[in-house]
Amino acid sequence: MHRAFALVTPLVLSTVVACQAPVAEQPHRAPAPVAPPAAPTALGVPVEERVTIPIESAKGPGDGEPADRSCDARLSCQGESCCKKLLVPGGSYRDEIAGSVAVEAFYLDKYELTVGRVRAWVKAGRPVPADGAVLGYDSGKRPVLWQKAFKVQSESKLKGWERYDTWQLDEDDLPKNFLDWYTAAAVCSFAGGRLPTDAEWRYAAVGGDEDRAFPWGAEEQTPERAVYNCLGDGDKSCSIHDILPVGSRPLGAGRWGHMDLAGSMFEWTLDAGGPGETVNRGGGFCYIGGMDRRAKHVRTKDNARHDAPSVVSHMVGARCAFDAPSDSPAVAAR
Ligand SMILES: [Ca+2]
Predict the structure, then answer these.
(1) Which of 21, 23, 55, 261 has a CA positioned 20 to 30 A from the CA of residue 331?
(2) Helix, strand, or coil here: 97?
(3) Ligand 1 centroid vs 312 CA: distance in angstroms?
(4) How far is the CA of 280 from the centre of ligand 1 (A)?
């Protein structure tokens, strides 16, 4: 079990070195995930590989939530479904460069993608969308297409650096790390959803027009509000014990109830941050607070990394988003 999982290393590494060791980072050699603007392609997944559930016909676990195949096993996180989805009403947030950015209503998973949900995807045969399938539309409204060249992680590749690998533990409610963009996108597709756009993610994290400095508000980060700086287990040393079950810091919930938007794992977004790069936000369990040169702070505006989609890291996982049905109260009210 998690707490009993003793990691023995012959090296006594400093906190920073242990946390920043490059062994888990791999250079990008795969194609960029975003196709140039083009006519959207129907989500034509072959029958034998069809894994998505039409949102319009989905019956969720309650409150109009979309259904989710990745939680068929009734996985439990903090006493509820690990697939709990919370509606984010539409609105706008302020971007320092772009100004006001509008976001339509959508569902966002309350929790980061867990080990158990990725195991459900593996058990289903690691299905992927069809070549040309539209995964979603990025913040610029361009379709993001699945390409046949995209390769998801094999079962062996899902295993990461043992020092921090949640996959090798017998705890399904831990966040899955060492997840690349392709696999994260495929798992969210399997779940019936997609990755959130960068705009959607930021909107949820800043609380829309409340423009929060932190997901929970204006107060500075504390270990009670976020899993960061290797303080998850209460001491400064860095180990796998600093990665906690998703939702372990309810005081850090965002405006609409989402957990771990700051801290725990960075989370892949749908958008491309540039050629061959995608953006991930909202981590990580051992870095934020000035220790990660790519994510200077837990503050919502600063807490981002730009990685190639094939990068796997002990700090990078994902969270899935879902289109809100057109008859959703939040949508109908607009
Ligand atoms: Ca996070």
Answers:
(1) 261
(2) coil
(3) 15
(4) 9
